[in-house]
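Quick one:
INPUT:
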């Protein structure tokens, strides 16, 4: 738990404020968008025969980052394949992290609801114990008097 707290503090320092699920999702979307756009431009530069236009590079980058991968356009050069690998890994990370964010949100909401119900139940039980204890005190006091 201490390692998680340290990581949270460092991320807060990096972004200048606490990193929430929504902020993490926003950062993830922006990074994926930038990698996709950069990948489209770089594919044009890395493999001009397979990607004669920036549009075709963008098409490849979008279908790759979304993990659709039609295969209608593929890089042929080593640098083009490297760029494609970065875009692919980014797409996989995007889907994995997005799934984790959604799952975390559901779990956190369920945890809050459970904690709220547990607190209500605990308070009711403590009130009942207090009432019974007061009744016992009255009974003991009446017998000793």
């Amino acid at each position: 738990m201490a390692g998680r707290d340290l990581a949270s503090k460092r991320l807060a320092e990096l972004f200048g404020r606490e990193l929430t699920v929504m902020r993490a999702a926003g950062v993830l979307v922006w990074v994926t968008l930038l990698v996709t756009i950069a990948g489209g431009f770089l594919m044009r530069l890395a493999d001009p025969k397979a990607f004669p236009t920036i549009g075709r590079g963008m098409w490849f980058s979008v279908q790759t980052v979304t993990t659709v991968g039609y295969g209608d356009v593929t890089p042929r050069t080593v640098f083009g394949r490297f760029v494609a690998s970065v875009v692919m890994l980014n797409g996989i990370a995007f889907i994995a992290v997005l799934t984790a964010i959604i799952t975390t949100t559901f779990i956190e909401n369920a945890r809050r609801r459970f904690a709220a119900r547990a607190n209500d139940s605990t308070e009711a039980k403590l009130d009942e114990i207090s009432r019974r204890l007061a009744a016992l005190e009255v009974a003991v006091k009446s017998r000793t008097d």
